[in-house]
């Protein structure tokens, strides 16, 4: 079965509020077996408009990635992120 990935690009506008999101999101990521592959490290924007924070999270499957996103645990965390920044998130199936 192909793995599933979250790919997020984020510009944090309120670091204190974003930290609350980060802490709250751990419950969902733990529950759904998320593996952080990239999380806010150094990057080089090669094309297009970028964001200061880039995140890649691996799941056992695309279905598991979707279930994590739709979970009550993640939706709670997402609500905390609402006024903390600008985020673009896509779920992708691996090869």
Question: What is the radius of gyration?
Answer: 13 Å
Would you give the CATH topology? Alpha-Beta Plaits
**N- and C-termini, Cα separation:** 9 Å
Contiguous low-pLDDT stretches (5 residues minimum) are none
- DSSP strand count: 4
Largest sheet geometry: 4 strands, antiparallel
Q: What percent of the residues sit in helical stretches (DSSP H or I)?
A: 25-40%
Q: Could you characterize the architecture of this molecule?
A:
It is a single chain. The protein has one domain: Alpha-Beta Plaits. Helices cover 38% and strands 32% of the residues. It is built from three helices and four strands, in the order E-H-E-E-H-H-E. It has helices at 15-31, 62-70, 72-81, and strands at 4-12, 35-39, 53-59, 85-93. It has a four-stranded antiparallel β-sheet with strand order 2-3-1-4, covered by helices on one side. Helix 1 (15-31) packs antiparallel against helix 3. It is globular.
Characteristics:
globular, Alpha-Beta Plaits, 95 residues, single chain, alpha+beta, four-stranded antiparallel beta sheet, 38% helix
